[in-house]
Request: fold
Amino acid sequence: MTNTAVLDELMTLVDPSKVLTDPASLEAYGKDWTKHYPPAPSAIVFPRSIEQVQAIVAWANRHKVALVPSGGRTGLSGAAVAANGEVVVAFDYMNKVLDFNAFDRTVVCQPGVVTRQLQQFAEEHGLYYPVDFASSGSSQIGGNIGTNAGGIKVIRYGMTRNWVAGLKVVTGKGEVLELNKDLIKNATGYDLRQLFIGAEGTLGFVVEATMRLDRAPRNLTAMVLGTPDFDSIMPVLHAFQGRLDLTAFEFFSDKALAKVMGRGDVPPPFETDCPFYALLEFEACNEDVANEALATFEQCVEQGWVLDGVMSQSETQLKNLWKLREYISETISHWTPYKNDISITVSKVPAFLRDIDAIVGQHYPDFEVVWYGHIGDGNLHLNILKPDDMAKDEFFARCATVNKWVFEIVERYNGSISAEHGVGMTKRDYLGYSRSAAEIACMKAIKAVFDPNGIMNPGKIFAPE
Amino acid sequence: MTNTAVLDELMTLVDPSKVLTDPASLEAYGKDWTKHYPPAPSAIVFPRSIEQVQAIVAWANRHKVALVPSGGRTGLSGAAVAANGEVVVAFDYMNKVLDFNAFDRTVVCQPGVVTRQLQQFAEEHGLYYPVDFASSGSSQIGGNIGTNAGGIKVIRYGMTRNWVAGLKVVTGKGEVLELNKDLIKNATGYDLRQLFIGAEGTLGFVVEATMRLDRAPRNLTAMVLGTPDFDSIMPVLHAFQGRLDLTAFEFFSDKALAKVMGRGDVPPPFETDCPFYALLEFEACNEDVANEALATFEQCVEQGWVLDGVMSQSETQLKNLWKLREYISETISHWTPYKNDISITVSKVPAFLRDIDAIVGQHYPDFEVVWYGHIGDGNLHLNILKPDDMAKDEFFARCATVNKWVFEIVERYNGSISAEHGVGMTKRDYLGYSRSAAEIACMKAIKAVFDPNGIMNPGKIFAPE
Reply:
């Protein structure tokens, strides 16, 4: 733990009331949504300016204090957990939209701006911030950038990376770098901005970000389609992708749907029971597009790939169809799911899913497996539900064994052990399944360039040296 | 120069006939389109495989031989120039499309695949490779990646960076890194792929690239609009961008048009003489879109932003309108233009252009300035034409003075001294106008991670140590 004299010095760098050490704050700010690790920070500090962040980093370098960045703490990999006496740097008071340019469609955000806040800001200006996911209501832009957040619209809009026009960062050395200056074209050497996106705070802190906005989507329309088997989802994706510009292509299994139906507050999409469902979305800008969608649907039915389907005819129907997919994560949380967030190239999905189902089913026939995810991006969320009669500890111990098998299959398919949740602490020991030893060595050397004293979120992505 | 014994050893690593030292080859492969620097390589080597590239890099490390990558050599900044006894590594024999996946819409390319070849391959498969520019007929994919090539469709499709799904590189240490494995989502630490894009071969060589393709555009339609002044171009851009998804938004001045008209082989867009012209393009997928475009045009005329205009009604008319823009560079090359490729955020363009026009006009009223460029991206090509009665040396010496003023203005506007042509040697000494000393120090340290002996394209981006 950081000693009192050192913490007293920290209090001289910011408003002293913005350094918290009470147990409730340490508990609240020391963890993220993983909740695996007992939080144990030394203090929480709330900077109000870039200068204060710089002063905190300089102080941390002087005293070799480890810093952990803290945004909305909605992460699922422990990247924002402070379990080892670190000082948490929380961006809650750097939460303003600083500037907006309607012409350039850019918004300058402090890192603590909440994702939903940016989405609403865009909407108020007739524009659109397209990165969207379950935790948009509390996640912050700084955290989105640190994890290169993805979500449900990636098939059309890409990851957070695509929307970062420029970044101001304070590196682990305490230098302020102004990266890319919001330019569309800038061929002047290595694009360091890209390194900080997805770096989980291990190189430095994002202290300001210029985010791009897009035009507002026009008449978003969803279809939910039931398929006779998993493999049919792929030609359905291919058929729709060939004829429409999709804004989303999600899937879920009958088990996932059953859990959501069990809530009693969401109408079923249609009568027919199907083992798998696809939810797709597009802009029905005019009748031609809607007709194209219906024609594609009919083609899929004729081919036997689709058993039944429904298309939204109103904003309310659109929202209700999305609930079928969006409520899954929250609903299954009652069963203490063991979660994996994996990705492969899209064309490999069917074989990959079969291999994983086989290995889990073979060794743990009593485990209920719920599949869903962003299948248009090759991103699958594998959820293993805890049997009611099994103790939590035993369940997680057995899942850890499954984990290794899953990652071996991921490695065999050249996939990613973390599609969009980051590495943090939960995936750290498995990084070698997705990145080679040579790559990991390069990453560590790059970290040393920006953070020579290793004070920036140590133990995240890599094991501590 | 590399000594004979060392070159003899090089010949054992590849087919000996694939090491050239004859004067014609040294001359041809030692330069790019800049033609400023007398080429002086020691040899040209043509690897045929990743293993051969690795062997060449290992050899270069053993003997401290500098290597220069060579693709289509269409660069405009001297990044592929070998003026100091380097060995040129030319990828002409690694020029195959290795794989194609219709489902994932990805193509695995060797680095020597020519841009046009990839565009045609995509077309043959009903798809589209959207990065396009003047030198597509001879530039290679490896070079496109090394410079993060941009061009005329960036407003819709982004730079080359957006289309690189995965990279295999041989680093300056001789290691093969397989970066991102073609995944859409991959949150497993720093995205090293991004570092190699735009690195101009200073970190390693791209030896394989998986490029994404897009759906083919539908009924591309162009408009050319004449405006009463430069400032009117901006509200025109804003109006069209608000109502249509543009695939291009280019501009050129009356001087640029006059030069192209002087050729006699391109029809004028319309009768009205205007000081500035915008060329915009969109997919007229259906009548609604075409009507929207016409309504926007009428709105612009009513506002006084547009004096006259024309919309293509056929593929031939589309091509003819594009010639007005595409022929500029080739046409003005007869006047030995001094070229600058600069960018700023789009909203700053009018003030920026005025400042530069003022300073050039004030000091060199006898210089003819031709403006054109990708204005939808904030990317301007400033071309100063040599007066007929001025000697080339004097002209370039005077332009070098102009250059400094231009870059001072670029710096003041937070812009880029090289929007899409890279740094190479021509912009190296001006890098500080766009990147801070701290950033440049980080870049050099990153180079040392991948290329500790400094053998990879030394003297490009940065001055040699």
User: Anything to note?
Assistant: DSSP finds 14 helices and 18 strands in chain B. The first helix of chain B runs from residue 4 to 11. Chain B touches chain A through 81 residues (CB under 8 Å). Chain B has a mean pLDDT of 95.
